[in-house]
Design goal:
CATH class of the largest domain: Alpha Beta
Oligomer: single chain
Largest sheet: 5 strands, antiparallel
Shape: elongated
Helix content: 40-55%
Order of helices and strands: HHEEHEEEHHEHEEHEEHHEEH
Number of helices: 10
């Protein structure tokens, strides 16, 4: 009896000791994994703020999981891009990569020595952006999933850093452009003032009237361009905000003609406003600048022949009004059409500075500027802007 009791007690104690040993080993393994994941999180998010560290991040994750190889694959526009490859390496044509990406579920394959290859989708907020491949690992599923989440956060952090850097670059570029426009515009005002004073003196000289008129006309044009550049600079800097108000088209046409006394000297300009044309909801000053630029361009393109200003409701949208500047010049070239319609950035200069300024000012008021061929020859420069709401008493 004593022997039997001793044997039973020995077996029970041995099993209990073995179970506690396994628990202690599991606890030690969990502690090691937690420490490794903590170190990995510190490495990923506290060690550096630089862009382009994803390859190092993936390598640290693989080392933490005791992998023999693997790497990081990100998908851009549906195509896999290998960011880093360690050990046995990665193949962008691996069919498991897009499958894991689409399903957002991990996949495992048995490997040598009782290890396994694991494909972990990298997802933040339910949106997968890549796959972390861990080859030849013995790590537990929970540790692998935690490492995958950390790398996914590192990928998302990298994206935010890149977007932030891009936004900072855009802000600096806008600030530089605004400062440059202001400096150039202000610096040009001084010589223009001197030119005007000289022209006034030349007007008193006999035989110089024709030359003086030509120079005065070009000086007026240059002065108007400077005013346009200053307006653009104020809009870009946010120091000037368009103030739309109901304005009749006839008033804008009258102010436009008054703004071009030299450019239109002796030129006939036909003005027509359709009877059903509503008032325009525009900033009057900006609208006159746009129309003056378009009419001046038309005058230069067609030195002879009548010019025309016309207003009518837009047939495509009752809430908008068309203001057309028409000429009978040679028309517009395909290159200018493409640039005016918003072609490649390098083509913008072909449309001319005046048209580029007009498009910028029109967008600030919710309008648009377009060039098109005129039936029978010539060009139509069209400013399309919002229409003012019809007063209730008029409806009644």
């Amino acid at each position: 009896m004593a022997l039997a009791v001793f044997l039973v007690a020995s077996v029970l104690v041995s099993r209990l000791a073995a179970r506690e040993k396994r628990r202690a080993e599991d606890a030690e393994a969990r502690r090691t994994e937690m420490e490794a994941l903590y170190d990995l999180s510190i490495d990923l998010f506290a060690a550096t703020n630089r862009i382009g560290a994803l390859g190092d991040a993936a390598g640290r994750a693989l080392r933490t999981m005791g992998a023999s190889g693997g790497g990081l694959v990100l998908f851009r526009d549906g195509e896999p891009e290998i960011i880093t490859s360690v050990g046995s390496g990665l193949d962008a044509a691996d069919p498991l990569l897009p499958g894991v990406m689409r399903a957002s579920e991990p996949a495992e394959l048995p490997a040598e020595g009782g290890t396994r290859d694991v494909y972990l989708p990298l997802a933040v907020g339910g949106q997968a952006s890549g796959v972390l491949v861990i080859r030849g690992t013995r790590a537990e599923h929970n540790a692998l999933a935690s490492a995958g989440r950390l790398v996914a956060l590192a990928v998302e952090r990298e994206r935010f850093l890149a977007e932030s850097a891009h936004l900072d670059a855009l802000k600096e570029s806008d600030a530089l452009k605004t400062s440059l426009l202001r400096a150039v515009s202000h610096d040009l005002r001084t010589p223009i003032t001197s030119i005007r004073l000289g022209l006034d003196r030349l007007k008193r000289s006999p035989g110089a009237a024709g030359i003086v008129e030509d120079v005065a006309r070009e000086t007026e044009r240059l002065s108007r361009r400077i005013d346009n550049l200053l307006a653009m600079a104020r809009l870009d800097a946010g120091t000037f905000v368009p103030r739309p108000e109901p304005t009749p088209a006839a008033d804008l046409f009258r102010a436009t003609l008054d703004a071009l006394p030299l450019a239109l000297a002796g030129r006939a300009v036909d003005v027509s406003v359709a009877p059903e044309t509503p008032d325009l909801l525009v900033d009057p000053a900006l609208s006159v600048e746009i129309l003056a630029n378009l009419l001046e361009n038309a005058s230069r393109a067609a030195p002879s022949g009548a010019l025309a200003l016309a207003a009518e409701p837009s047939p495509r949208d009752a809430a908008r009004v068309r203001l057309d500047v028409l000429d009978r010049g040679p028309g517009i070239s395909p290159e200018v059409k493409q640039a005016a319609a918003g072609g490649a950035p390098g083509d913008a200069g072909r449309a001319g500075l005046g048209l580029t300024i007009c498009q910028s000012l029109a967008r600030a008021m919710g309008g648009s500027v377009a060039l098109m061929d005129r039936a029978g020859g010539g060009t139509i420069a069209r400013l399309e802007v919002p229409a003012a709401a019809t007063p209730i008493e008029e409806i009644v």
